[in-house]
Structure prediction request, 295 residues.
Amino acid sequence: MAIYDAYFTALLEELKSRGIDAASLDLKVPREITASWLAEALSRALRLTNDPCFGIAYGMRLNLASHGILGYALMSSRNGDQLLSLLTRYAALAMPNLRLTRVVSGKRMLLVCETRQGILPQLFLTELVLTTLISGARALFNRRIPGAELWLSFPRPPHADRYAALKLPVRFAQPYSALVCQRTFLEMEISSANPVMAEIGARQCDDLLEQMQSRSGFAQQIRRSLLRALGDFPTQAEMAALAQRYLQTSELSVGQIAELLAYEDPANFRRAFKRWSGSSAQNWRRAYQAGPAKG
Prediction:
């Protein structure tokens, strides 16, 4: 998705500010940046910087516009309540394994952050998400988040003093990792509110989320098939059939299909598909959509 392009641009800017050239990532940038490719780029950036607080620095560099249509929907929200409704509903657009949950307890409101560790450390992901949330909320509410605190479910890390950059109290070893503030945040109005744009943005986010869930559902079918095979992995013909089913029945780009079939670089998938079928994926799809030639 285009949202990942903006995330990658911000990553390059952060690396440049540290004197690290983009070539140091040793990654070929694909035509379409996917979540898995971006995760690999972030993993390499972590190793290059050797900075345990890189998640906070990178999160502070992202702004609302970095999140594409989701960011514009958030900026168009009426108040904190609508803002959090959008965030909790569409969080997976920003990070596939991210879940945000709003919890209201007495006079406090908690936006609980749950991430799933993959190739990136969970603490890094949590710091990145919560820093981005803090920066975005401050931008929308003229730097006012009443009673704001940062809760982390992790023990106090060695780099805890670096949290001072966030300019709010931080509590460790809490029941949740969350942005905590006063309940009155929900009633705070957003000066850039635009009901029409908020509705349009929400519809587009719904479409993107539906596409993502559709891809995930079919990917789960593939994984179950592989597990049932008990190590007897698909032949080239079977992999070609999987790819052709995507091309026939979905609006997914070739890059997205490559990701679902576990190709980190879509170019490798394109080459493999041409070996399997004798045609490029795009030409195969066009020929299928055109149907039998009429005489």
In short: The beta strands are 99-105, 108-114, 149-151, 170-171, 178-182. Residues 149 and 168 are 6 Å apart (CA to CA). The chain has a mean pLDDT of 85.
